[in-house]
Design brief:
homodimer, 199 residues, mainly alpha, Tetracycline Repressor, domain 2, 9 helices, elongated
């Protein structure tokens, strides 16, 4: 449908390459030259597709990575026989990906979120919106399991916090122990909330 | 005791300024010129005290900030009437500091840990050692409360993961909701572990 299908491909390659670089090197550590080299794109195409430069590209990558990650994690939860197994599977799956990628592929926006929190409002807002979309995704599932609203909200935030915190510890230690511990904790509080429904 | 007390002061000022800059801008985003400007130190003093340059300075700042933060958090826990209140106080205190510092002062090494995890082994190892020292600090307190070793280890990792994960969410959203949710979750699992001691 695009007037020039090749242009679309170039833009996609730039977005993919940037997402990959952000995960490994963060926002500040990712250079525009590296992006176009990894995307196999001419330098001019970057400003053609993203006239606002690195910041505009960054905002789009954060939203795109966030949506892809939401889809991935939602798929894992929904494929499980029940919510508790689904939550456990998220942590186990994340540990598997970390080991398989030499402890590089964890959360696609976490490094960037911390780098920009005190320095770049448009990028900070984009990361906040993505985290909120993940919290909403978990919230809908806890509500569907008849957990009351305040508990579902607290549980959803806890789930994302446990994942993000475990990612930092796992990437630093190059072990998956923290994801295992965090997964067990998530299971304990989800189970308690499910038991609490009757009261 | 130093041959030149002023030299000691300069080194301290460089370390303090770097720690502050790391928290706000991360490792990559912190420039040497900014460090000496903030430390009110001549540029040459940086390489005089840290012949290995930014990396050597970074390793020392990570260990120093890590030790100071351990002392701070241990002090909060030990000042509480009991372990459960102490854990709650950690999250409440962290939320207070975040609000007071315009959501800048969270974990002193988290941004750096994520930036260097896939790019700089000496810095990654330093962050891993600091996280492990925090886990050990919590572990000693859970063991002193008669919680068995595997549970104490899991609880200690969970505590640090909840704090680190909540910091990311709070800094991104500029609210302290995640620290409140994470603090409640920490209290639930610590209480469960304390109850489980008798069995």
């Amino acid at each position: 449908m695009a007037a020039n299908p090749k242009a679309g491909n170039t833009k996609s390659r730039i977005l993919d390459a940037t997402a990959e670089l952000f995960m490994r090197y963060g926002y500040t550590g990712t250079g525009l030259k590296q992006i176009v080299a990894d995307a196999n794109a001419p330098f001019g195409s970057l400003y053609h597709h993203f006239p606002g430069g690195k910041e505009e590209l960054g905002v789009e990558v954060i939203h795109r990575s966030g949506a892809m990650y939401l889809e991935l994690v939602s798929g894992v939860i929904d494929a499980a026989p029940d919510l508790l197994s689904g939550v456990r599977d998220c942590f186990a799956g994340a540990a598997e990906v970390l080991r398989a990628t030499d402890y590089a592929d964890a959360c696609p926006i976490e490094t960037v979120a911390l780098e920009v929190a005190s320095t770049n409002e448009p990028l900070r807002e984009a990361t906040a919106q993505v985290f909120e979309s993940w919290i909403d995704g978990a919230f809908a599932r806890f509500r569907a399991a008849d957990i009351d609203e305040p508990t579902a909200r607290e549980l959803s935030i806890t789930l994302i916090a446990l994942l993000e915190g475990a990612f930092v510890l796992c990437r630093a230690s190059r072990t998956t122990e923290a994801l295992e511990a965090a997964g067990n904790t998530a299971a304990i509080v989800v189970e308690a909330a499910l038991r609490g429904r009757a009261t």
